[in-house]
């Protein structure tokens, strides 16, 4: 239930006017002006979705519009009852049908993105035959085309020929020697639809014919000579034939229009709804508005108004954003604070945005806003004084509030401006408290403004009520328009009066006359505001520092990641280089042995083999590994000054600090500083003084290298190190080729083996094993 009075007080009609201004179609314009909030949740959600879809279209195609669409429903209804329409009317209908056709086509193209608007466009009919029929006969300007029909074209051709014949004969008549002296002007003219010549009045009896007109001066008479009378009659008959054919064409076209009159009516209605949605889309883009989420309150999800960065839609860029949540912890909000501080604007913003949402309109607030469905929105705002009704300001307010209290129900919103004002403060305050208690008992969401100190205390001590205030800058003595929940605000009436130019002596006198208790309360509120501002400024500083530290920490982690990647790259490069050197040395040894064998010198051969065996024995014993410091047990306590191993970074560091509250450790490694949890650290053994940089070392061990390596059942991550170690051993053992068994399975292991072999420095070539050696289940590697 929404009363027109409440709509007017909250300025909803002005919103309708603004959105109507974006409409391109008269019918949608009227639809917008008649718009009212709905209490049907499905209808509201559908309207909001239509708005969002329209905005999407306009963001992609800003110029999209139904411009040119005219409400031709009345004309089509006239055609339906047998009225013949004029050519200009038919041209207007054709243009409108063209707009409908393009609108339907556009919605069909965008059906996936705008399903609701597409569904509406499905109600638009297809009038291709009618549109073509009209366009074939009538120009866009509304003139009947010469070839509107074959018969009309023939008639008009005959008319042109007959006209030429008549004019030519009359010209000859005018210039003949027998009649020349009787002619006033040598021209052929038309009078009353007949061809005539201008004859001097005194000679009219000399020209045998019919007088059709006389000039204003009476000096000239216009005569149709009998000599051209038959030709004139023939021309007139052709004109009658033309008129009849035109009437026939217009009648047929009108009948076509009349046959689809009801369909055209439905199509125009659908187009109006789409244009209305487009108007809302334009409003949304222009005013940075969004569709608020709306829901039907339940026991588990009660009515809570959540407005985020909300602005009054009529204030434009001057509006200060308002964020508020009402209904979760309290149902009644009492706003206090300075005059001109924004209290009334806040009331109107809350009430108006709720009305707009229930009308399916986007609101100037962020997408985080969420509003409950209200069965009624009531308002008492402004001066209710009425001379005609013999109402004072207070009486006017009470009359309106009485209406509200009678009609209000649980699922309602009530906004009350300056509750209890314009009367004795004690009685007004008592009445205000009683009204708020009545609304609270009904669990009605209520927002009220006041200057009464008693009401501030009442809101503070009463469960379900909450104070709020608009801040007042104690330094500049100006309102900040920032709403703070939980804190009452001082009226700052004297400060406001001073700001508006009231003489200083009056201001000083007013302060002196102010009751001690009231003055102390105002001073306390002012001090609280100043302290609040100081804390807010401090919070901003801390927030900036926190952001700076987070940014630095992120940068350090990025630098650490780069160092780890560089470390791994260096180790891999060193390892690859050593492996290549080993392979080259092995190759040189092979060549040396071959050369010695060719020399047939037993002593040289023996000596070379001894050298080769010695080198091979050392190579067979070496594998490469990275050394890390010895670490103590994981649960051993760590203190400031201890050396620790950073598990993630794989570097050693020194503990420089411990946060007892968070359990985090501050550690340093050279120029780097980190803050880590205990799980990321390991304490190094007490004997370890400083971790050496990771280095390559050799561990000697003996090993027998077989002719094959079985990798069946191995994990993908284990294959490369196993294959690499095996090939190093095979090379040092001087094996010419080896067999790698990987099995068939999914082929994944085979693919890994062959990919690694294709780029390994010790592998010359590879191929599938012969069938009797495993076929595709094994790969033969030939070593360099």
Describe the model.
One of its GO terms (biological process) is negative regulation of DNA recombination. Residues 507-602 form a coiled coil. It is an enzyme of class 3 (hydrolase). Homodimer. Binds to stalled ribosomes, contacting rRNA. This protein is of the alpha/beta class and 784 residues long. The protein folds into six domains: 4-127 and 260-286, MutS, DNA mismatch repair protein, Chain A, domain 3 (Orthogonal Bundle); 150-241; 294-513, Rossmann fold (3-Layer(aba) Sandwich), CATH 3.40.50; 536-626; 643-693, Roll (SH3 type barrels), CATH 2.30.30; 703-783, Ribosomal Protein S8, Chain: A, domain 1. It has 21 helices and 25 strands. The chain is flat, with a radius of gyration of 49 Å. The chain starts with a helix and ends with a strand. Residues 385-390, 618-627 and 687-703 have low confidence and may be disordered.
Key terms for this structure?
Rossmann fold, single chain, 25 strands, 5-stranded antiparallel sheet, 784 residues, 21 helices, 48% helix, alpha/beta, MutS, DNA mismatch repair protein, Chain A, domain 3
């Amino acid at each position: 239930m929404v009363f027109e009075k409440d709509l007017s007080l909250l300025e909803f009609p002005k919103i309708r006017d603004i959105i109507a201004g974006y409409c391109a179609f008269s019918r949608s314009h009227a639809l917008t002006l008649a718009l009212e909030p709905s209490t049907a949740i499905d209808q509201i959600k559908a309207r909001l979705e239509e708005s969002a879809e329209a905005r999407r279209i306009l963001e992609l195609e800003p110029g999209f519009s139904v411009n040119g669409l005219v409400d031709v429903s009345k004309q089509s209804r006239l055609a339906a009852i047998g009225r013949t329409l004029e050519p200009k009317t038919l041209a207007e209908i054709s243009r409108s049908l063209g707009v409908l056709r393009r609108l339907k086509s556009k919605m069909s193209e965008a059906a996936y993105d705008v399903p609701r608007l597409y569904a509406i466009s499905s109600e638009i009919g297809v009038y291709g035959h009618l549109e073509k029929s009209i366009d074939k006969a009538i120009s866009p300007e509304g003139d009947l085309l010469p070839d509107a029909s074959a018969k009309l074209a023939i008639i008009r051709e005959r008319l042109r020929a007959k006209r030429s014949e008549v004019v030519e004969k009359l010209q000859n008549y005018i210039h003949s020697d027998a009649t020349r002296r009787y002619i006033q002007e040598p021209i052929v003219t038309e009078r009353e639809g007949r061809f005539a010549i201008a004859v001097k009045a005194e000679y009219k009896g000399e020209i045998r014919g019919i007088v059709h007109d006389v000039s204003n001066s009476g000096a000239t008479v216009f005569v149709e000579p009998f000599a051209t009378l038959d030709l004139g009659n023939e021309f007139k008959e052709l004109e009658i034939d033309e008129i009849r054919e035109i009437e026939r064409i217009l009648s047929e076209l009108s009948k076509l229009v009349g046959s689809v009159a009801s369909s055209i009516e439905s199509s125009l209605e659908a187009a109006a709804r789409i244009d209305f949605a487009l108007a809302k889309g334009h409003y949304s883009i222009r005013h940075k508005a969004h569709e608020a989420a709306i829901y039907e309150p339940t026991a588990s999800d009660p009515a809570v108004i959540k407005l985020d960065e909300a602005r009054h839609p009529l204030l434009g860029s001057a509006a200060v954003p308002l964020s508020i949540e009402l209904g979760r912890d309290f149902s009644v909000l009492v706003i206090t604070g300075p005059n001109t501080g924004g209290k009334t604007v806040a009331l109107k913003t809350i009430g108006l945005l709720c009305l707009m949402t229930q009308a399916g309109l986007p609101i100037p607030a962020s997408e985080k806003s969420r509003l409950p469905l209200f069965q009624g929105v009531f308002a008492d705002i402004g001066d209710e004084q009425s001379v005609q009704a013999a109402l004072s300001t207070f009486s006017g307010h009470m009359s309106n509030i009485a209406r509200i209290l009678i009609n209000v129900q649980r699922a309602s919103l009530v906004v009350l401006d300056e509750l209890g004002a314009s009367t004795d403060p004690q009685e007004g305050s008592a009445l205000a408290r009683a009204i708020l208690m009545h609304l609270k008992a009904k669990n009605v969401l209520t927002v009220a403004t006041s200057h009464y100190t008693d009401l501030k205390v009442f809101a503070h001590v009463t469960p379900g009520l909450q104070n709020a205030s608009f801040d007042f800058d104690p330094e500049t003595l100006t309102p900040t328009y920032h709403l703070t929940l939980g804190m009452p605000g001082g009226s700052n009436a004297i400060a406001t009066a001073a700001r508006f130019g009231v003489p200083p002596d009056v201001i000083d006198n007013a302060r002196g006359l102010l009751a001690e208790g009231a003055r102390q309360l105002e001073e306390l509120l002012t001090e609280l505001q100043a302290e609040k501002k100081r804390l807010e400024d401090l919070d901003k500083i801390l927030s900036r520092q926190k952001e700076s530290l987070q940014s630095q920490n992120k940068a350090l982690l990025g630098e650490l990641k780069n160092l780890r990647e560089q470390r791994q790259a260096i180790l891999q490069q060193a390892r690859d280089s050593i492996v290549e050197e080993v392979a080259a040395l092995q190759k040189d040894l092979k060549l040396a042995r071959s050369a010695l064998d060719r020399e047939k010198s037993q002593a040289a051969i023996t000596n070379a083999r001894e050298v080769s065996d010695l080198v091979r024995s050392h190579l067979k014993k070496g594998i490469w590994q990275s050394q890390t410091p010895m670490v103590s047990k994981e649960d051993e306590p760590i203190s400031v000054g201890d050396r620790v191993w950073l598990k993630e970074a794989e570097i050693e560091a020194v503990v420089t600090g411990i946060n007892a509250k968070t359990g985090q450790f501050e550690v340093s490694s050279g120029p780097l500083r980190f803050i880590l949890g205990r799980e990321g650290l390991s304490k190094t053994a007490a004997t370890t003084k400083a971790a050496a940089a990771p280095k390559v070392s050799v561990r000697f061990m003996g090993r027998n290298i077989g002719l094959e390596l079985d990798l069946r059942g191995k994990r993908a991550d284990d294959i490369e190190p196993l294959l690499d170690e095996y090939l190093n051993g095979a090379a040092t053992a001087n094996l010419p080729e080896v067999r790698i068994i990987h099995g068939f399975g999914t082929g994944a292991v085979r693919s890994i083996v062959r990919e690694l072999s294709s780029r390994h420095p010790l592998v010359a070539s590879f191929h599938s094993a012969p069938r009797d050696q495993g076929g595709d289940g094994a790969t033969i590697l030939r070593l360099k």
